[in-house]
Write a structure and sequence with these properties.
This protein is of the alpha/beta class. It is built from 8 helices and 6 strands, in the order E-H-E-H-E-E-H-E-H-E-H-H-H-H. A 6-stranded mixed sheet has the order 1-3-4-5-2-6, sandwiched between helices. Strand 4, helix 3 and strand 5 form a beta-alpha-beta unit. Helix 5 packs across helix 6 (190-197) and helix 5 (170-183) packs across helix 7 (204-221). The N and C termini lie far apart (41 Å).
Length: 235
């Protein structure tokens, strides 16, 4: 999916409708170096790509989309491709992307073992490298631990900057929840956030999904998110 200015194809990026997708909303925790590098990538002349890996809920897609949002504001031609949807996409969509300023491939694990997609990404990588156009990739595993079958592609995944995104500690997770709540226009007190954290699944996807439900429930009931209100909803 491309977004750009001028003569490029202009297909809007699809982001979560509930939140702004930017760096300010990302709680870095132990991932400060990765965050700083990505914040500077649109203004860097280095041309090297980035491989972000880590378990679900570490913010890989968020960071990739934040780079795209920043690049769009700078009027750069970019592509963001959610490879989890590869069955509804075509490898041919990678043709010509080397002419853009930035290319992002989210969740490369999804196409592991698919020969046509692996070959298409391998050739795209080579074209981008020749032109020093950054390729940003996210994955659940390190380049060495990747399930990619094409040996030449797998080796290239480790050629550029590799960042292992770490799971947030408890305090950072609570701050992330409060940031999300503020972005939706409601307050989440430390007491309520702590209450949620100790009583539901602690992975970020589950917490953010619950936050959506709480937001909707509080709007319907016209009540603030207090511990008794949240307790009733969870029960």
């Amino acid at each position: 999916m491309n977004s750009g200015h001028g003569g490029g194809r202009q297909i809007p990026l699809i982001f979560n409708k509930y939140e702004q997708v930017d760096f300010a909303l990302y709680e870095a925790g132990g991932n400060a170096l990765a965050l700083q590098h990505l914040q500077n990538i649109t203004s860097s002349k280095e041309g090297k790509g980035v491989y972000l890996w880590g378990q679900a809920g570490t913010g890989k897609s968020h960071l990739l989309q934040a780079v795209c949002a920043q690049a769009s504001k700078a009027l750069l031609n970019i592509a963001y491709i959610p490879l989890a949807d590869f069955k509804s996409l075509s490898p041919q969509m990678l043709d010509g992307l080397e002419q853009l300023s930035l290319v992002c491939l989210d969740d490369i694990d999804s196409i592991a073992g698919n020969e046509e997609w692996e070959q298409a990404i391998f050739h795209l990588y080579n074209r981008l490298r020749d032109l020093q156009t950054p390729l940003l990739i996210t994955a659940g595993n390190s380049p060495k631990g990747s399930s990619i079958k094409l040996a030449d592609l797998k080796s290239r995944l480790a050629w550029d900057h590799v960042f292992h995104l770490k799971v947030l500690e408890e305090k950072a997770t609570l701050r992330a929840l409060q940031k999300r709540a503020n972005s939706r226009g409601f307050d989440l007190s430390e007491e309520v956030a702590d209450y949620l954290f100790k009583r539901v699944a602690r992975d970020m996807h589950s917490l953010f999904q619950l936050l959506d439900k709480l937001d909707q429930a509080s709007l319907i009931a016209q009540k603030k998110l207090t511990i008794p209100f949240v307790k009733d909803l969870l029960d």
